């Protein structure tokens, strides 16, 4: 691969914004500056556009078994949807199978991704069964380039659910193994009891998904996980924070100086509890966990993103078709597969509702979507920045691009979009992975199988130091 020069645009990084050209050589950035000579070099005119580091989505579920079915997007369609949203790397959850090993999860996910991904990728391994041999195996993950594991405190009654003793020991072991522990923080016991009681009353509709997972069960589990991490002396990351009381637990940990990272997601800004209460069974299209909340939580979440209590914005893309999949829960909300698509809409949502509304700066936008993700998950500075030496993962962002989401113009493999009819201002005009064009003007042009595995290495920074 030769040279490529991006000219005339405004470079926007987590640190600042300035007019500069960006030179790419052999898939890496080789120079960023005001006057790079263009003689004999292929140029890309970025006039009127922002040149940003490729976005990283460290929360996706591609081709994953869940709720008695498989997610609708595989690694081809799922990464195409992500690319169409400006994402150049995903970090997906490789599930340890019942009776299986961590290496087995890694190998299975490698098989799923290898010939399909159009963008780069890494894996978190979700530990579902902390047997003695798994405890012994855990330290080998770092050598495979896996810098993070996940524990589910929710979904009691499924193989994912993990008790506190195993969460605590995972925190202890991971600290020594140089691996970051991610938690899905909701109180699985309380939810299971509330669900039983709801069904016994005949409350079977989708809205009871939210009513049996109140904010306090998320706040309680968030605080419990953080305190267990404190006892273990380990860093921790709380995924998909949905509400103010859970964020409060994170904020208090930061006040104490504890290393706690935290993510929030587009669905908690774009949708709300009322969407679950839509006519008929429509609410099933909005079932995800933690559930959609009352909009009164949003000011706190915006403030968390602004101050750095929440450092990252991931999609939690976990897509199921309405027909045949969401419908599994027609008579019982507990059987609706949990999750919604959002990889394509993640950045557009944050720009439209956040940057354009004056809640975040363009630099905070890049931090939450790219730089903080790379730093926390151990891919920086290869990913997450436009500095010389970094992979040439580049988004040409059009701050005025006007689009409206419909199921027909989505790039994933889902029979509906929760964003149907939603208009965005701001979106990617073109997206490059290691200097290769993968998306332009509405069309994914990247080759399936061209994505590469990204080896990551976790180095804990104090939670407060990643504040932007
Ligand atoms: N979030 C959700 O509803 N589904 C995906 C699995 C998870 O992240 O909990
Ligand atoms: Zn989760
Ligand atoms: Zn998830």
Structure report:
- The modification N6-carboxylysine is found at residue 150.
- InterPro entries: Amidohydro-rel, DNase_TatD-rel_CS, Hydantoinase/dihydroPyrase, Metal-dep_hydrolase_composite, Metal_Hydrolase, Metallo-dep_Hydrolases_sf.
- One of its GO terms (cellular component) is cytosol.
- The chain has 468 residues and is α/β, with parallel strands linked by helices.
- The chain has one domain: Alpha-Beta Barrel (TIM Barrel).
- Helices cover 29% and strands 22% of the residues.
- It contains 13 helices and 21 strands.
- The chain has helices at residues 75-84, 102-114, 132-137, 164-177, 188-201, 207-211, 215-232, 244-256, 267-270, 273-276, 298-307, 346-355, 362-376; strands at 3-7, 10-12, 17-19, 21-25, 28-33, 42-45, 50-53, 55-60, 65-66, 69-70, 87-95, 120-126, 148-152, 180-184, 236-238, 260-264, 312-313, 394-404, 423-433, 436-440, 443-444.
- Strands 8-11-12-13-14-15-16-17 form an 8-stranded parallel sheet.
- Helix 4 (164-177) crosses helix 7 and helix 7 packs parallel to helix 8.
- The longest helix has 18 residues, at 215-232.
- The site of N-(aminocarbonyl)-beta-alanine has 9 residues, from loops.
Q: Tell me how many strands there are.
A: 21
Strand order of the largest sheet: 8-11-12-13-14-15-16-17
Low-confidence stretches: none
Q: How helical, in percent, are the residues?
A: 25-40%
Give the CATH architecture: Alpha-Beta Barrel
Domain Amidohydrolase-related: 50-438
Cofactor: Zn(2+)
EC number: 3.5.2.2
Protein name: Dihydropyrimidinase
Q: Top keywords for this entry?
A:
468 residues; Hydantoinase/dihydroPyrase; binds zinc ion; 21 strands; alpha/beta; 13 helices; dihydropyrimidinase activity; binds N-(aminocarbonyl)-beta-alanine; eight-stranded parallel β-sheet; seven-stranded mixed β-sheet; EC 3.5.2.2; TIM Barrel; hydrolase
């Amino acid at each position: 691969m030769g040279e490529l020069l991006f000219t005339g645009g405004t470079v926007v990084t987590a640190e600042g914004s300035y007019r500069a050209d960006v030179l790419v050589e052999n898939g890496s950035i080789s120079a960023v500056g005001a006057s790079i000579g263009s003689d004999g070099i292929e140029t890309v005119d970025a006039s009127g556009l922002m040149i940003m580091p490729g976005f990283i989505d460290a929360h996706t579920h591609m081709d994953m078994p869940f709720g008695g079915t498989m997610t609708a997007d595989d690694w081809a369609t799922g990464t195409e949807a992500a690319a169409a949203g400006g994402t150049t790397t995903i970090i997906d959850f490789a599930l340890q199978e019942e009776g299986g090993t961590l290496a087995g999860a890694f190998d299975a996910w490698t098989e799923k991704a290898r010939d399909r991904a159009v963008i780069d990728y890494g894996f978190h391994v979700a530990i579902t069964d902390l047997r003695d041999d798994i405890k012994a195996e855990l330290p080998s993950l770092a050598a495979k380039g896996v810098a993070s594991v996940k524990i589910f405190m929710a979904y009691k009654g499924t193989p994912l659910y993990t008790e506190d003793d195993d969460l605590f020991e995972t925190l202890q072991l991971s600290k020594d193994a140089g691996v970051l522990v991610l938690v899905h923080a909701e109180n699985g016991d309380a939810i299971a009891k509330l669900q039983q009681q709801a069904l016994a009353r005949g409350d079977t509709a989708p809205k009871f998904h939210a009513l049996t997972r109140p904010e306090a069960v998320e706040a309680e589990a968030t605080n419990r996980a953080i305190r267990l991490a404190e006892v273990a002396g380990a860093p921790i990351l709380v995924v998909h924070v949905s509400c103010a009381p859970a964020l409060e637990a994170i904020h208090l940990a930061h006040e104490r100086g504890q290393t706690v990272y935290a993510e929030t997601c587009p669905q908690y800004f774009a949708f709300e509890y009322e969407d679950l209460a839509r006519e008929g069974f429509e609410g099933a299209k909005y079932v995800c966990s933690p559930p959609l909340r009352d909009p009164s939580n949003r000011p706190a979440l915006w403030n968390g993103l602004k101050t750095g209590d929440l450092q990252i914005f991931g999609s939690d893309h976990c897509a199921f078709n309405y027909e045949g999949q969401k419908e599994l829960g027609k008579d019982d909300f507990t059987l609706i597969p949990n999750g919604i698509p959002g990889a394509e809409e993640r950045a557009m949502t944050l720009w439209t509702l956040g940057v354009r509304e004056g809640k975040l700066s363009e630099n905070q936008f890049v931090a939450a979507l790219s730089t903080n993700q790379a730093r926390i998950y151990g891919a920086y500075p290869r990913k997450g920045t436009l500095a010389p030496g970094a992979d040439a993962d580049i988004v040409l962002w059009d701050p005025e691009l006007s689009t409206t989401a419909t199921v027909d113009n989505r790039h994933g493999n889902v029979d509906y979009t929760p964003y149907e009819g939603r208009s965005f201002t701001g979106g990617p005009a073109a997206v490059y992975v290691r200097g290769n064009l993968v998306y332009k003007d509405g069309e994914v042009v990247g080759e399936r199988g061209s994505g590469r595995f990204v080896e990551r290495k976790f180095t804990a920074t104090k939670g407060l130091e990643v504040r932007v």
